[in-house]
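Posting this for the archive.
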Amino acid sequence: MRLFIAVELPKAVRNEVGAALKELKMLSSGGRFVQENNLHITLHFIGESNDLAGAVKAMQSAVRGIRPFELHPAGFSSFERSGSRTAFIEVGGNTGELAILHESLQTALADNGFAREYRRFVPHITLGRSVEFDELIYAQLQETEFKTSFTASEITLFESVKEKGKLVYNPLHREKL
């Protein structure tokens, strides 16, 4: 199974970010875009694993002492890696608490035999990969303002599967903060 742990977005936030996603699709000249119902904030990509019990145990350990906290979509951005541009929405709000949750999850997963991620954690909502757009469009997208916010009150273990050529993220376990 292809697994990852994330903060799910409530419907109102997915709708608002989804509107920005639609605009990006319309203005760009190509890319592989995330489906609106798959929008989330990744905390850790596990990859191929059948160890659901270990992942759940790590999640239970990671959330101890962490209380729900506020987050919100903050603005459009992108980064380029190996000649491919990833477009995303930055996350604002109590990102310090989100970073603590991320680090706690990293430690708990490593304690349960999962590989640790060593790259710097940048909380974001991925919109698309290999996205092609020029600087004028980039500037236009950066003007997007978001009004929604939400309380992050749980983390979710997802399985990523392909159905009819599209990625579907199936929730396998939720752990409350």
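Helices lie at 11-27, 52-62, 95-111, 135-142. The chain has a mean pLDDT of 95.
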